[in-house]
Design brief:
about 200 residues; mainly beta; outer membrane lipoprotein receptor (LolB), chain A; twelve-stranded mixed β-sheet; Outer-membrane lipoprotein carrier protein; transport; OM_lipoprot_carrier_LolA-like; OM_lipoprot_carrier_LolA_Pbac; chaperone
Length: about 200
């Protein structure tokens, strides 16, 4: 699940025409965001292999808190310098440098420093199922995702569709979305609980 996320959480920006206008409007009006999400993963044959859900908060630039509540508890916190991944059931915390963990992944599509054009090619992807779509393709071939599609309705973020290089597709559907809520700074800090194993914090 961590790889699905780190294929997920930082800047929606830039491009010509309608896609640019839609993305610019969303980012220009969004410094903070909170929402609930449901996540479904399909294999290359379209079979459902995983379901999950939870909620997230983000504060631009580069701060996010992603909480999985089902099927098991997992917390992912990015503070701009590091990304902390806490698996409660395993009593384990993994730590990665922020740039390496997020970098050119789809995480660069929800909260960031307005430099998405350095990492992605964006294009208008038309309308489907009542949503207006923008497609983001990583410029680098080194990441695990080959394409991300972002669906908007009335200028609001509704859906993200992520296709990885193994043929899997992850759908993230957002609900109860709030723009620019007051978020406490403590949400984007993480201290490992006593007694857990910490991996990668060298």
């Amino acid at each position: 699940m961590r790889n699905l996320f780190l294929g997920l959480a930082l800047a929606l920006l830039a491009l010509p025409v309608q896609a640019e206008n839609r993305l610019q409007a969303f980012i220009g009006q969004t410094q903070a965001l909170s929402a609930q999400f449901s996540q479904v993963v399909y294999d290359r044959k379209g079979r459902k292999t995983q379901e999950a859900g939870g909620h997230f908060q983000l504060q631009r630039p580069d701060r996010f808190r992603w909480t999985y509540q089902t099927p098991y508890e997992q917390l992912i916190v990015g503070d701009g310098k590091q990304v902390w991944i806490y698996d409660k059931d395993l009593a384990q915390v993994s730590v990665r440098p922020f740039d390496r963990a997020v970098g050119e992944s789809p995480a660069a599509l929800l909260a960031g420093d307005n430099e998405i054009e350095k990492f992605f090619q964006l294009k208008e992807a038309g309308s489907q199922d009542g949503l207006d779509w923008v497609e983001a393709t990583p410029k680098s071939q080194e990441g695990s995702f080959e394409r991300v599609r972002i669906g908007f309705k009335g200028g609001e973020l509704q859906l993200m569709e992520l296709k990885d290089r193994f043929g899997q597709t992850t759908l993230l559907r957002f609900s109860k979305l709030q723009r620019n809520p007051a978020l406490a700074a403590e949400l984007f800090r993480f201290t490992p609980p006593r007694g857990v194993d910490v991996i990668g914090n060298d």
